[in-house]
C-alpha cells in the first residue's frame, strides 16, 4: 500500500496519491483500503484472533503505514529516483493527515478506568480487599 502510494508520485498520478481519493474521508476508509493488502499476507497459525484485531486497529495500521512509507521513500532516494524523501508530496500528505483533528481523535487512547474482569470493580478496590 505504501509502495503504491509512493510510486504514484513518481508517475505523477494525483488520484492514486490521495489513496484513491479517500485520504481525508476518515480513518475507517484507511482501514478498509488496507484490508486487501493485509489479507494477501498469510496469518500465523494460532495468531488469527490477534491478527484480526490488529487489522482493524487504526493506530496500528497508521503507524505501520507510516513506517513502510518512510522505508519506501528512503529506498527511492537511495536509488536516485527522488532527491529528498521528506519533501515528497506523499510524505507531506501523510504528515498533514497525522496533524488533523480527525486522526488525533481516532488515534487517541480512551481514558476509561481499568476494571477487574471477574469482579467488575476497580483495581484499587480489589487491592484493598
Structure described in brief:
The protein is about 60% helix and about 0% strand. By secondary structure, it is mostly helical.
Following the backbone from N to C, one meets helices and strands in this order, namely HHHHHHHH
Percent of residues in helices comes to 55-70%
Name the poorly predicted regions. 20-24
Total number of helices: 8
**Protein structure class:** mainly alpha
Written account of the structure:
The chain is mainly α. It has one domain (2-128). 60% of the residues lie in helices and 0% in strands. The longest helix has 21 residues, at 58-78.
What descriptive keywords fit this protein?
129 residues; mainly alpha; 8 helices
Furnish the topology, listing elements before pairings.
Layout: H1 2-10, H2 14-17, H3 27-39, H4 48-55, H5 58-78, H6 89-98, H7 101-107, H8 123-128
